[in-house]
Design a protein that fits this description.
heterodimer, A: about 475 residues, mainly alpha, two-stranded antiparallel ribbon, globular, B: about 625 residues, alpha+beta, Penicillin-binding protein 2a (Domain 2), Beta-lactamase, 2 domains, 6-stranded mixed sheet, 5-stranded antiparallel sheet, about 35% helix, elongated
Chain lengths: ~475, ~625
Amino acid sequence: MSRRSNNIPLFEGVDRVAVILYLLLVLSGLTCITSVSFEDATITDFFSFSHFHIKQAAWACVALVGALTILLLDSRYYHMYAYYAYAIGVILIFGTVVLPDSLARPLNGAKAWYTFGSFVIQPVEFTKITVALAVARLMSNYNYSISKLGDMIHVGFIILLPLAIIIMQNDTGSGVVLCSFIIVLYREGLNKWICIPLIMMAVLFIFSFLFTPLFLLMLLVLIFTFCNAMMIGHWREHTIFIAAIAASSFLLYGASALMLEEALSGYTCLVITVIVAIIVAAIYAFRKNISAIFLSAGLFIGSMIIVPTADKIFESVLQPHQKLRILSFLGIMSDPKGADYNVNQAKIAIGSGGLFGKGFMEGTQNKYFVPEKETDFIFCTVGEEWGFVGVAFVLTLLCLLILRLMKMGERQEEPFGRIYSYCVASILLFHVLVNIGMNVGLMPVMGIPLPFLSYGGSSLVAFTILVFIAIRLDASPRNGLMRMG
Amino acid sequence: MSNNDSYVRQSILRWIVISIFVIIACRTGYLQLIDTQYKRMAANNVLRYEVQYAPRGEVVDRNGEFIVQSKECYDLMVVWRDMDKQGFDTMRLCNVVDISKEKMVRELKNARMTPRAPYLIKNYVSQEAKLRFEEHNYPGFYTIKRTVRQYPRKIGGNLLGSLGEVNDKDIKNGGGEYKMGDYIGRSGLERAYEKYLRGKDGVKILERDAHGAIKASYMDGMYDTLPIPGKRITSTIDVRLQAFAEELMRGKIGAVVAIEPSSGEILVMASSPTFDPDDMVGSDRGNNYMRMLNDVQKPMFNRAVQAKYPPGSTFKLVQGLIGLQEGVLTPAHAYPCHGGYSYGKKKMGCHPHASPLDLRNAVAQSCNAYFCYVFRDIIENRKYKDVKEGLDKWVEYVNSFGYGRKLDSDFLDEQRGYVPDTEFYNRIYRGSWNSYTVLSLSIGQGELGCTPLQMANLAAIVANRGYYYIPHIVKAIEGQDSIDRRFYEKQYSGVDAKYFEPIVEGMWKGANVAGAGTSYRAYLPGWDVCGKTGTAQNPNGRDHSTFLSFAPKDNPKIAISVYVEHGGFGASAALPIASLLEELYLTDTITRPQMVEQVKNLPYYLPRRYQNVTKK
């Protein structure tokens, strides 16, 4: 039997640093939510249950009870019931899609919530936990190998199934979180030549709206030549290569202007030159037997194909409000009262904080102008009321927690615990990157909460469970054999 | 996966995490510590700008009597967030400010959408209601003082014009002068003198603290501005005359315009049917506006400056003057008239009178045939290549009398009327026409169209013997030495002063010698009234009745034109109205009450297009 039943103290082996970081984050969140609840000078009943901060405090208590329960449960259960949990998680999110509106009321265009009277639950927050468990269970199988195609498809399926359903819910923001599992796959040995193109696709997708195709192509040529030079040396040849491309593009442009009725566009000239250059480079690489050039050339051609495709996807797949938000993020549409409004007000609130902030409950921007101030834009309150000092504090806490989770994963001998810890770390990292990123105008606006700080019962409880399962797994005896016995 | 590879991946991931956090921290630091624009924008966010509305300028008549006054009224505003939601008694507030419960509930629902912004619940709250409101305490509700128009004499609806709330276009074109909820002159004098009447709103900048409560005046009111009231305008209108004109025109359709010839000041401008300007103010404005818009008699159509009426026989004055100037006519020249003017198989009819007549008598008797001869002589003049060139010359003269073009008065919605030219006839007759084709122009019929203002201006030109001042409605603007300089410049017609005498004498004779002309009813003993009747045929129904007059003959004080649609003979409807107005203006009394009665009870039949007014 497990050691838990043998009078081993409850907190034996529990990572205190992680717990303290967690508690500090929840307290910071409560402070900020308290501040924004008091936009009204007339309200005197501090403890009224109608305030966000009291509700959130109640939820924090629920979360703590949940955390204790998790610490009490045997760690083997998570491994044992991972697939069942996964199935339940998928059914839960699928339920919101098929159930009538009376049980799953659409909010803000997304049909992603269960409603029980005034009580609302967002199942996707819990689905993240079950997906993490399932991924950990699958990948910790003894003969699982990420480099085998079948296994790769298997784990891909586990991640993409809920993602597809979440997109059906019209809640793309929450779904994209699952993409962060690429970090876990990378850690577990996924070929970097799969990771790099995937990440590059995402980056290119965003950049394809920011720059003109000609500029993007020039940028790509420069980056890839530079990377290639980094890999194989021969800096002089690469410089000549770039110069040759530039010169022949100009020549082609000039020649077309003289000989044809209408000169070719700069983009067409560059494309033609680049294609010729790639062929030349390929022949050169084949002769000299330098395989790295093929890699760069392949990636480059891939990128050239993605850029125009991104436009198509953008036009056909995304919802109007998603398009607007992405465009607003990229600064393409600047409409102070439209899609840009939220981000602008958020930036104003944060920017007005200065070094030390305005002090607790003294913020004005966050209360009156920032929409969703208690949920998606809670970071504004940190920025405005506590200034850069507060921001640095919260960022440090989050960063340390993520690094701690990674460390906790690495020190476990069981792959299940390690993979699960990495899953938690990547989910947290993604949330932080996107949420704070959108608050400070680095990321498009997506409706996903800041872990532990944003108001919302589902998200607080779900993140607590997520983290505490990792802590529980880490607290299990370091000796894997004992656990198996 | 080897241990070494695993270690590399671990540390790469660790560095990725750290670099993401560093990037976010740098960005936040940039926003908070380096870029100052967000602090500035934050300051703007926290300030509340409270408008201090400037009272609009008032309008007085030429004798200093108020025509338009500004009355205090209030906008009831609410800030939803500050409302006392529990103890709020909707019904009581509704009673206090005279507002229906449904409207209040609806408006509060809207106010809830923008909980922090002041929301307008009701405008035009009266002063009494505001005082009642002050006695109670309604947190979140407050009033803003504004002014509305008030019309003590209830006259001159079209003349004075009305105000409306600005729309997006006005705001865009206003160059920052206007904001949502402001009023702007929409027509008449309000529109033309908007710039002076408007004044300048002030602003009070308030700062709110972290709880949203108003803390104090921002920077001790350093940036506050006081409202600058609009300028008072002295109009050229004589309210007594204007009211009398509107009274006489009541029930009839048409327009009266009277001008002081020596200055171009408009004494009366009555367009009938008119409306009570007070109807265009306050909360019933929308309903009244729609009612008038659907009225087939078009009360909002300012006939005095916008209608296109055939001038009828009054145009014979112009014809005679051009003939004299062109040298094709001498005052002593007599033409026969045997019941009209025959040409080919057609005949331009005329009423029975002695024959032949010279110019003076032809004017007095309003002989059609005489002016057919004159008109043909003008446009068939050998001086010109052909009739077409002759007509163009004629058009040039007619334009110089103010017809067929805008007079450039201070009515922005003034219309130009219409004078047909060679090009027009070439188009409709495909180039083949002659003086007979256009003969109806000789007696002011045909395609001619002119506004009552242009006709009154003709009276002024004749009164002045050849020149006019641009008619205008404003005499003085508070704080300014003069009005626009164009109103002080003599505008000459194309006819020399010496040619006016026979015409004036003809007009005098018509009104002063019994049996010698059509205008004898306009006789005022001792005032040497000069007049010319007109009866204009039209395709819609009975003839239009018009009368053009000035008095006295020497040093004229008033020039007037009256136009009554479907009023019959010029002498039956238009003449008595003009005569009574002249009498009132010149003598301050009315000695012919039976004439007033006759005008008011005039048998009057409107064609079908003006009927069914009461249709709901």
